[in-house]
From TrEMBL:
It holds the Pfam family Peptidase_S9_N. It comes from Salix suchowensis. This is Prolyl endopeptidase. Residues 20-43 have a biased composition (Low complexity). Serine peptidase whose precise substrate specificity remains unclear. Does not cleave peptides after a arginine or lysine residue. Regulates trans-Golgi network morphology and sorting by regulating the membrane binding of the AP-1 complex. May play a role in the regulation of synaptic vesicle exocytosis. It is an enzyme of class 3 (hydrolase). It comes from the Eukaryota. SUPFAM superfamilies: alpha/beta-Hydrolases (SSF53474), Peptidase/esterase 'gauge' domain (SSF50993). Its EC number is 3.4.21.-. Residues 20-46 are annotated as: Disordered. Transmembrane segments: none annotated. Keywords: Hydrolase, Protease, Serine protease, Signal. Residues 43-463 form the Peptidase S9A N-terminal domain.
């Protein structure tokens, strides 16, 4: 599947825009395949009329029969096999080029590698990749003289023959041998470092089983917890807290599990009965509390659990108030709370005493142009992740001693970054230290890990992802440009290209990526497989359109509900800008989006099919209206806060105006590659692009 997604999508992009970029042998093979008549005919799906009527409006879906929640219908599976066979036939002449691309992509990967070790208690923990293996090993080493070795930006894990040996806690490669699909999404070490709880998915449906093992010998401890989410945390050395889902896969219950007892006897700590809300779980950096959040798209409230006394249950930290959302951290005798409201849409940072959560002290006020995105809390420091003018920022603050009053913050110190556009995210840091760890990358800078000393301002690169094959970041140019939307709004675009291979005269091929939903920030990130396009003279661009969160909360609010059209018109404006500025032409413009970004693809293709040459839609959410009318489909009820509830007439007609399936018409569409998943929990086949219109 990894090969299919990377090499085939790049293949279609490269060949459709610039067939001369492939080898002559590839083109001859394609021509031969077509001329000899070996290409299959497109599969013809039967039509079964399915009428849907609401508010006097009648819609007919002749392919609704493709809905098969069991994924076992012989008729549906047969049709999918025919579609796959047809795709293979169409691309049969490109096999040589596809193999070449795959070899390039694979050849850039350093297969034998380890992650940057992080300190946790008396150990370094890290993961290891082995050459020729797909999955990770989870490892640790004892820290020599742990009590006498404080954290430092210059800290390095000793690996000599006389140093503590490596211990492999879990080898995913061995576990994966028993399954066609395998994924671990949580790996949690107990406070005493004797046990590990990990969440395992063996189907790809994101329904997990949590196993507990003895760290030293790998033996299972107790029975696994089944049908759970990957949200699992240790309360103490023998107690886990975890979350389960309801029949529509909405996380709705928090449970307390004592090791050695049966799951059927676990205690339900909280049940969220409102089906528009979902719950989540995290442990404080101090390890003293667990936080349970319940949220929809506009409201979030929090409970806390004393990790030393989990049997005491949940206590309210922030109350349920419609329109107010909050997130919590802990340090000493205070909780730190990010709080967002309609008035303070970019959030403010507050502190409140642990023993009286009703008394709050503002630490960072709301600012209209700067959004508080996240915080990392330490024993003596606070790191705040912000967004300003479409770019992330990190500000480090020194905190007063725990026993001193917490009334304000001193001036913080901003961390400098080297690229004009980039992405930066928190990484696991040691609470009782002054060292902030973060990950950084840009369109030309591979994924990097930095340690930053918040006392001195010293920053040290701990690792830069190795890209084999002679990659040189200095050969690539990154830019930030701004397109003007139809209502005058300035929309940021991030751009990268290889400077010695482009002409910037309209003749260059360009791939434009977009998402624009859920307040997700599509910050410019590095992707080694993308080099196969850049090194063939492609330009790559990201349209940071409304509906995302790149420019703050209002950017998101102005691209959802009854303003969702802004998402699509922003993307079109970005495409037009790139053409006007001669980065490409219509004949050389390819677009890509996945999931909600696939809805973006479908909508802009219906609106402006003349503007694009190629489109790639991965697991696209294209049957938006029918999906949002069916509350039995996973996530539908919680999604009403994102798209609107089409059971209300105003939303029905607005959503119908952009829902891709409902707006297909007889017109000249560009080349389109659609990929879909059979076992996805949250986007069923009939919601994706499996419609033979």
């Amino acid at each position: 599947m990894w090969r299919l997604f990377n090499s085939r999508s790049l293949l279609v992009t490269a060949l459709s825009l610039s067939p001369s970029l492939s080898s002559p042998n590839t083109l001859r093979s394609m021509s031969s395949s077509s001329s000899t008549g070996t290409m299959r005919s497109p599969p013809a799906a039967k039509k079964v009329e399915h009428r849907m009527e609401m508010f006097g409006d009648v819609r007919v879906d002749n392919y609704y029969w493709l809905r098969d929640d069991s994924r076992t219908s012989p008729e549906v599976l047969s049709y999918l096999q025919q579609e796959n066979a047809y795709t293979d036939s169409v691309l049969s002449g490109t096999k040589q080029f596809e193999d070449q691309l795959f070899k390039e992509i694979r050849g850039r990967i350093k297969e034998e590698d380890i992650s940057v070790p992080y300190r946790q208690g008396p150990y370094y923990y890290y993961t290891r990749n082995l050459e020729g293996k797909e999955y990770l090993q989870h490892c640790r080493r004892l820290i020599p003289n742990h009590d006498m070795t404080p954290c430092s930006v210059h800290d390095t894990m000793p690996t000599g023959p006389d140093d503590p040996p490596e211990h492999v806690i879990l080898d995913e490669n061995i576990k994966a041998q028993e399954h066609g699909f395998y994924s671990i999404q949580a790996f949690k070490v107990s406070p005493n470092h004797k046990l590990v709880a990990y969440a395992e998915d063996t189907k790809g449906d994101e329904i997990y089983t949590v196993h507990v093992i003895d760290v030293e010998i790998g033996a299972p401890v107790g029975k696994p917890l089944t049908s759970v989410t990957c949200d699992v945390e240790w309360a103490n050395d023998d107690t886990l807290v975890y979350i389960t889902m309801d029949e529509i896969l909405r996380p709705d219950k928090v449970w307390l599990h004592k090791l050695g007892t049966d799951q059927s006897s676990d205690i339900c700590l909280y049940h969220e009965k409102d089906d528009t809300f979902s719950i989540d779980l995290q442990k404080s950096e101090s390890q003293e509390f667990l936080f349970v959040g319940s949220e929809n798209k506009i409201t979030r409230f929090i409970f806390f659990i004393d990790a030393s006394k989990p049997e005491d249950g949940l206590k309210v930290l922030t109350p349920h108030v419609v329109g107010i959302a909050s997130w919590a951290k802990h340090r000493g005798n205070h909780f730190f709370i990010i709080r967002r409201s309609e008035e303070f849409f970019n959030s403010e940072l507050l502190a409140c005493p642990v023993d009286d959560v009703s008394v709050t002290t503002p630490l960072i006020p709301h600012r209209e142009r700067i959004k508080i995105q996240d915080t990392c809390l330490f024993a003596n420091h606070l790191a705040v992740y912000e967004r300003e003018n479409g770019l992330p920022k990190v500000i480090a603050y020194h905190l007063p001693a725990v026993d001193e009053p917490l009334t304000s913050l001193e001036d913080g110190r901003a961390i400098d970054f080297i690229d004009p556009v980039y992405t930066v995210d928190p990484a696991q840091s040691e609470f009782n230290s002054s060292i902030l760890r973060f990950s950084y990358s840009s369109l030309r800078t591979p994924d990097s890990v930095y340690d930053y000393d918040m006392n001195t301002g010293t920053s040290v690169v701990k690792k830069i992802e190795t890209v084999l094959g002679g990659f040189d970041a200095s050969e690539y140019v990154t830019e930030r440009k701004w397109a003007t939307a139809s209502d005058g709004t300035q929309v940021p675009i991030s751009i990268v290209y290889r400077k010695n291979l482009v002409n910037l005269d309209g003749s260059d091929p360009l791939l434009l990526y977009g998402y624009g939903s859920y307040e997700v920030c599509i910050d410019p990130w590095f992707k080694a497989s993308r080099l196969s396009l850049l090194d063939r003279g492609f330009i790559f661009a990201i349209a940071h359109i409304r509906g995302g969160g790149e420019m703050g909360r209002q950017w998101y609010e102005n691209g959802k509900y009854l303003k969702k059209m802004n998402t699509f018109t922003d993307f079109i404006a970005c495409a037009e800008y790139l053409i006007e500025q001669r980065y490409c032409s219509k004949e050389k413009l390819c677009i890509e989006g996945r999931s909600a970004g696939g809805l973006l693809m479908g909508s802009v293709l219906n609106m402006r099919p003349d503007l694009f040459k190629v489109a790639f839609a991965g697991v696209p959410f294209v049957d938006a209206l029918t999906t949002m009318l069916d509350p039995t489909i996973p996530l539908t009820t919680s999604e009403w806060e994102e798209w609107g509830d089409p059971r209300k007439e105003e939303f029905y007609h607005y959503m119908k105006a952009y829902s891709p399936v409902d707006n297909i018409k007889s017109q000249n569409y560009p080349h389109i590659l659609v990929t879909a998943g059979l076992h996805g929990s949250f986007l069923h086949l009939h919601q994706q692009g499996i419609r033979p219109h």
